[in-house]
Batch of 3 targets.
Target 1
Amino acid sequence: MTLAEVIERARAQDMAVRADQVGPTRGLLARMAAIEALLLRQRAVVDAEFRERGRGVVSSDEAPEGQVSLADYPKGFCGAIRDRMFDRLLADAEFRALTGREVIFKKVFVLLKGVYFQNALQLGNLYVDVANDTVDTRKPPVEWMPVEEAPFRNADDWPVVAEVGRRYYGVELYPNFHFPLAFPAVPWLAVRSSGRLDFFFAQEHVFLKDLGDGLRRARALLDHPAFAERRLPEECRRLLERACGANLREAFPIEYAEVDADTIRAKVLPEFAALGRAGDAAAAGVAENYLKLVRAATARLARMDLRAGG
């Protein structure tokens, strides 16, 4: 797979009304009672799978902060449920017979109601949430509506993603001027209400789309004075410096260096922009390894449990 294809897969998770789906969607609406019943049956199977895996698992009250626990399923398992449902539905002959060959069926990732990061499905011109109960477990597990009626935005702008993240996770966000290599995928560091420091690495989609657009979104952030002038609180900075400043690989997988917006603009972004222009299989491997590194750093910082005000 080339990097161009990886980037296109990220773009494909945007949701939009499609003109070629207007007719097929009319046919879907006539069959939605049967389709919804099938979705609920498949969701029951997925629920049983996850609950079996969660036997004996400690609750999230005992799990590390910010991590979900199978003991509290389905709460927090929006993405995992959506992905499992997608795979099962693709393999379900009855589902494909009900939907028909002309109907698009894909995963989407959207910002819902300005409050939620939402992993869902698009079926024709319908928004289908097969994990509707993963924040409030009192809600029905499946919800659907026409795309044009869904209160969503696509994840296509770093400031909007950040605003939803502040609400969704209850965090304060500060420019990541401490791990410059991570900046294109993690432009913010998060401080939880408990004082714990984290990478704000909610999703990969914006980074991958930005990679295909010359890092215009990252550049726009750096060019905004309100972003570029904001600084991590001094106590938090000292915590990071003590924990990561020696740049020992066994301590933290990404180099720590205190920089400013000009340094990231001049020394970091050009390398990623060049990678995005390459578009070949080798570049795809570099991007995937980079994201693995960022995931590892995100998990490592969480395990370090650095807390201000403690």
Note: The first strand starts at residue 105 and ends at 112.
Target 2
Amino acid sequence: MSNRFINWGIFVLLCFIWGSSFILMKESLNGLSVLHIASLRIFVAGLVFLPFAIFHIAKIPRKKMGLVVLAGLFGNLLPAYCFVAAINKLDSSLASILNSLTPICVAGIAISFFKDNIKARKIIGIIAGFAGLCLLTLYQKTLSLDNSGYALLAVAATLMYGINVNVVGHYLKDIQPIHLSTVSLSLMAIPSAIVLWQQGFFQLDFNDSTVQWAIINSSLLGLTASAFATVIFYMLVQRAGGLFASLVTYGIPFVALFWGFLDGEKITVIEIVALCIILLGVYLANRPDKKINDY
């Protein structure tokens, strides 16, 4: 089996896992609250990574532990709450489209706060992506004054991702990605466990089949979308390079749209056009120069 075939297999698997995460969140809402789902997802992922984190934490400089915690907060914990809250009121397909704004947020924050030199074509990509978001916001039939705030929660999550990527890229690039991900995610298991306890998770009726199914979905979300996907994502980076791995962003919304369609969600022409514009912006904002190294 050729390396190219294996790389594409990992790529498709990542698109499927992360694209399916939105429908898993929606299914979990049938038996659990927003806080339960997000907390259980991060707790399960952190628990799985704990044995690795115990070994890797010694390889992280103490002076950078604060930034590692920040990476866990902005890269995992807080966005998890934002996206589950958003999906509580929005179609999972719409939430996945908003998630595709992440690379544009990365570029925008790099220009605004880190004074990075961004080429004109990348700025054009940011503008194109913003235009797609405006089109989606103005014409998306599922949006209204009552739920538009929840769409902003999804956008806020992408901003957090943008901040996290820039912090990691500027201040934590000397730390191995697998070390950073295992330690930061395991540390987030502590606040997520506290939230589960305070929100009465352990007082739920675990004999209720609806609660059981919701817990299975949330745990699967943590095991696959947060823990396992992180491991194979970095495997793909090592095998095929960061550029190829980053293209997973383009496939996620299409997988989520597919699941949303099977779940009875209506996909409008305007939504598809807006998605294409946003993805065009993502492509322009992330297209590399002729010669570029991974990371």
Note: The mean pLDDT is 83.
Target 3
Amino acid sequence: MNPLNILSVNLSENKGTIKKPVGTIQLGIRGVDGDAHAGPWNRQVSLLGIESISKTEAEAKRKIAYGEFAENITTSGMELWKAHPLDRFTSGEIEMEVTQIGKECHGSSCAIFREVGNCVMPKEGIFARVLSPGTLSPGDTLEYHPKMFRILVITLSDRATAGEYEDLSGARLQQLLNDFFKSHNLHHFVHYSLIPDDPHKLEELLHQAKEELIDIVITTGGTGIGPRDFTPDIVKPLLYKEIPGIMDMIRMKYGQLKPNALISRSVAGVMGKSLIFTLPGSVKAVNEYVTEIFPSLLHMIYMLHGLDTH
């Protein structure tokens, strides 16, 4: 898409008050120097598009000045609220990462709400943290870079690798992942790898995924107690943190009706900057497991990046 135009840069000395346009702002590691919202938190820099301001002007039947909604940066060229956490904006050496879309509205206790009569920031303003500092002025531009979620699906199966049957569980997992990320309008790429039941090959792929900062790794197969079932044994030593609740709940939920489900040794956890889940090697199990994993998947990703999206 075309670059966003910066219409105004704005500062305020106190939180909950209107910001005033200034000639330039300096972005540092704590946010906008001299601004009340600067600090070691996720909402260091606030951005609001003229596209959102114009709608409020029509409702208020008056012109709204830049900074009246307490935004640090007023832009044109994109409906900013359509961005997502972990997307990025750049301008020269400056890099900002989106941390939050909208915020809690404090209503009549907020000076902005009292003066303007409404506030669009809680719904359509966005917030970012500074990754790389620099100076911004009106007339500068911002490039928008949507986060590309990278996902690795690994199927472990001697027979599927040998061509004795088709890997249906891996194909189903890819379909479900594509549907999930499309439903959230998130950019993503799913890479697929079919390997035999080879612990050394699996470990090699996992180390590579960790080095390449793959966001999500999901394996299918090798979670039982058979002689060739070793997936959890390879994964566990690589985990920085285990997430036991997910798999425990899945085993208990489905094991109540089908006790064989309790035999699964599936694990979930954090491997570097990657989330990893080990699933049994059947289409039915894939359907059941992702049904439980997907509702908290984005929250897990954001937590792993230090974002609180409650």
Note: The chain has a mean pLDDT of 92.
